[in-house]
Recover the amino acids of this structure.
């Protein structure tokens, strides 16, 4: 392999890891790909083969993290008002294991956690993601933030405190989770009392519908009774639901006549559904890669 081929081959070896970092930082697959591409452009402008970079994986992780940090800061500047309803891009895979998605789903971050990560400051999010999810030492995180390792540790601690309850999914038997998900789907077809039985009393439903989705307008609903009422209104859609994995947890896609109408992620704790996240924005759905998943 000549020196011209070397950076591309080495970068490709780390691409999945970089995309996983960027996705957890940004909650957007499109923006994650943009960040990874920018990291590649910066690598090609560096004398990597000449020895300027001793540890390419660490160097690229630092670069993509700084790019994501800038993107998060720009995102906050653009927002005049906080978004009441937003569902991050989901990663949808078959119930069967998909080895191509292994890197992206390793240490899987559910939609519920990604939603809460959006409430953190960019610096808090970076410190938490790099340390708690990717196990980077604070000695490496501090320079990315232009802060001391102690300050980076404090940021991660602050983030951990704000994420308490959302960051650690409850351990559960996958077979039992599937039973709960099946019961939810069956009850949503018309059994109001059955819906109440599988919903946590404090369940949250978050639906991001965009401007043309079947579930519009977007909505944020709290409490089992109100969530069950809302699910009842769209009972006809449940006939077109198929079980998949959404960010590594059980969920559904709703497909009618070959058209993807929604991706639904559910969080289950103690045999109850505690959160339902629905992406029904046609524009964003069109950008998802669901090859082989749509009947």
């Amino acid at each position: 392999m000549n020196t011209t081929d070397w950076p591309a081959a080495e970068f490709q070896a780390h691409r999945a890891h970089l995309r996983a970092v960027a996705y957890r930082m940004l909650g957007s697959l499109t923006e994650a790909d943009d960040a990874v591409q920018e990291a590649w452009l910066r690598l090609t402008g560096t004398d990597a083969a000449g020895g300027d970079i001793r540890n390419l994986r660490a160097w690229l992780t630092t670069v993509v993290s700084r790019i994501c940090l800038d993107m998060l800061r720009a995102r906050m500047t653009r927002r005049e008002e906080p978004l009441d309803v937003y569902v991050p891009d989901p990663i949808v895979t078959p119930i069967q294991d998909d080895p191509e998605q292994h890197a992206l789903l390793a240490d899987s971050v559910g939609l519920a956690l990604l939603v809460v990560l959006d409430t953190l400051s960019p610096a808090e999010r970076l410190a938490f993601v790099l340390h708690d999810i990717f196990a980077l030492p604070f000695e490496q995180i501090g320079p990315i933030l232009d802060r001391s390792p102690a300050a980076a540790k404090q940021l991660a601690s602050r983030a951990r405190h704000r994420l308490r309850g959302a960051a650690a999914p409850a351990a559960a038997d996958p077979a039992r989770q599937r039973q709960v998900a099946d019961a939810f789907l069956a009850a949503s077809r018309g059994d109001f009392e059955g819906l109440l039985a599988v919903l946590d009393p404090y369940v949250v439903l978050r639906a991001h519908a965009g401007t043309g989705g079947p579930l519009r307008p977007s909505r944020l609903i709290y409490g089992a009774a109100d969530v069950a009422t809302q699910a009842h209104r769209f009972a006809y859609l449940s006939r077109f639901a198929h079980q998949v994995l959404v960010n590594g947890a059980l969920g559904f896609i709703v497909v009618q006549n070959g058209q993807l109408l929604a991706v639904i992620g559910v969080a289950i704790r103690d045999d109850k559904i505690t959160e339902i996240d629905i992406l029904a924005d046609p524009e964003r759905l069109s950008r998802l890669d669901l090859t082989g998943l749509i009947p």
Notes: The first strand starts at residue 92 and ends at 93. The CA atoms of residues 148 and 223 lie 43 Å apart. The mean pLDDT is 84.
